[in-house]
Amino acid sequence: MRGGTTMMGLFYFGLAAAFICFAVLHVNNHSWNFLTFLYAGLAALDVLMGLRFLRAGRQSGSGS
Fold first, then answer.
1. CA distance 37 to 56
2. Keyword annotations for this protein (predicted)?
3. Which run of H or E residues covers position 8?
């Protein structure tokens, strides 16, 4: 199951990178507004979820 949690962690990091790109593009084309903050918030949540999955994979792998 360790590969599953690691892959999910990397998936969430990929989502975070996409939301960061969306936020940067939105700021360049427009100004800071609610949508930009929403993108940044979603990116932050995705980074946290990615870290949780990576930690869970490491803990389940070292327990056996």
1. 29
2. Membrane, Transmembrane, Transmembrane helix
3. helix 2-29
Whole-angstrom distance, CA of residue 49 vs CA of residue 41:
12
Residue 27 CB-density burial (10 A; 0-12 exposed, 13-18 middle, 19+ buried): middle
**Which two structure tokens, joined as six digits, stand for 24?**
């940067």
Question: Can you tell me the distance from the alpha carbon of 32 to that of 26, in angstroms, rounded to the nearest whole number?
Answer: 8
Tokens of 11: 């998936």
34-59 residue pLDDT tens = 999 999 999 999 999 999 999 988 88
Q: Where are the domains of the chain?
A: 2-62
